[in-house]
Design a protein that fits this description.
By secondary structure, the protein is of the alpha/beta class. The protein has 2 domains: about 5-215, Rossmann fold (3-Layer(aba) Sandwich), CATH 3.40.50.300; about 220-280, 2-Layer Sandwich (Alpha-Beta Plaits). It has helices at about 45-50, 70-75, 90-100, 110-115, 120-125, 130-145, 160-175, 190-195, 215-220, 235-240, 260-270, 285-309; strands spanning about 5-15, 15-30, 30-35, 60-65, 75-80, 150-155, 180-185, 200-205, 205-210, 225-230, 245-250, 255-260, 275-280. Helix 4 (about 110-115) crosses helix 6 and helix 9 (about 215-220) crosses helix 12 (about 285-309). Bound molecules: adenosine-5'-triphosphate.
Length: about 300
């Protein structure tokens, strides 16, 4: 598959502050990628640079092997940013038609209605009269108006209720299935885990993890072996088993946090423990995230030590 987004050693400095620090990654056509990070991690700045709205201090960004502002690129890209600002004094329909007119192959109005959940009665409203939620839907419609191949969404579900969020992701997944490449920022771990096929984790302007949710969990967390006891064994017995890092026991359900799940299972079978319903699970994404944040904190404090000398 073709690489359509490429960042090479991108840094953005604001006065003394490095908002983005030497970030490199590439994204292939058809990928669904989450950029995950806490508040202030540098997600929006990275996205604005990708969209050509901000110039990197150093490094390069290319979309479809060209500059983000190239006419052919603009035809193929749609963006929905965090701040909801739409042109006043126009009706919703007029504004959408205006944006559609900039593109050679715009998406039909009926498809836009369907995809964004904008209701027909909202078409004739003036944009300044829309509610926050309606403005967001309009912004989504504007991002899709040109029928883009590549869609950037900056924290798209902030402020949405559970149902709106589910509907939104259902539509985005549909678009992704059609072959569109989707890149979104979020600070919701669960959202990244459930929706994205790949997660790029950012902390303090740096990429600290990149891979599928399973890969990140598999590489950076300890697996859990869970089972039901047929007869009760003391908790200390489990603690003495090799490859066990931690034991949790609640009634007959036992969870062993393993340093090596395969070896631990072998051990359990060799000893013929009287248990059933054995499951092996990966650790949780929260663990990966906090571990990666901890790692970066350590680097930080070392830097402070160096500074103090
Ligand atoms: N125009 C600017 N001038 C100065 N500092 C800025 C500017 N834009 C962003 N920053 C700083 O750069 C850092 C990264 O900001 P950015 O908005 O990219 O983070 P974010 O991960 O998108 O956060 P959030 O989830 O809160 O939107 C922050 O410390 C922010 O204060």
């Amino acid at each position: 598959m073709q690489t359509i987004v490429e960042l090479k050693n991108v840094t953005k400095e604001f006065q003394q502050k490095k908002a983005v620090n030497d970030v490199s990654f590439s994204i292939k056509q058809g990928e669904m990628v989450a950029i995950l990070g806490a508040n202030g991690a540098g997600k929006t700045t990275t996205m604005r640079m990708m969209l050509g709205l901000m110039k990197p201090t150093r490094g390069t960004v290319s979309l479809f092997q060209k500059d983000s502002k190239h006419k052919e690129v603009l035809e193929r890209v749609g963006g929905m940013l965090q701040e909801v600002s739409v042109m006043d004094s126009l009706k919703v329909k007029e504004l959408i038609q205006l944006i559609q007119s900039y593109y050679q192959h715009p998406l039909e109005l009926s498809s836009l209605l369907e995809l964004t959940g904008l209701h027909e009665e909202e078409w004739n409203k003036r944009t300044e009269k829309l509610s926050g939620g309606q403005k967001r839907r309009l912004n989504f419609a504007l991002a899709l108006a040109g029928n883009p191949d590549l869609l950037f969404l900056d924290e798209p579900t902030v402020g949405m209720d559970v149902t709106a969020r589910e509907n939104f992701w259902r539509k985005i997944k549909e678009l992704n299935k059609q072959g569109k490449t989707i890149l979104f920022t979020t600070h919701y771990l669960q959202e990244a885990d459930e929706v994205a096929e790949r997660i790029i984790m950012i902390n303090k302007g740096e990429v600290v993890g990149d891979g599928t949710p399973e890969h990140l969990k598999g590489k950076l967390t300890k697996p859990r072996v869970r089972f039901q006891e047929k007869i009760s064994y003391p908790i200390d017995f489990y603690r003495t088993l090799p490859f066990v890092a931690e034991v949790q026991k609640e009634k007959e359900t036992v969870t062993l946090v393993a340093t090596n799940a395969d070896q631990l299972l072998k051990e359990i079978f060799d000893r013929q423990l009287n248990i059933h319903h054995i499951e092996v699970k990966l650790g949780r994404l929260e663990e990966v995230f906090s571990q990666l944040m901890e790692d970066t904190k350590e680097v930080d404090s070392n830097e402070h030590l160096l500074d103090a000398k």
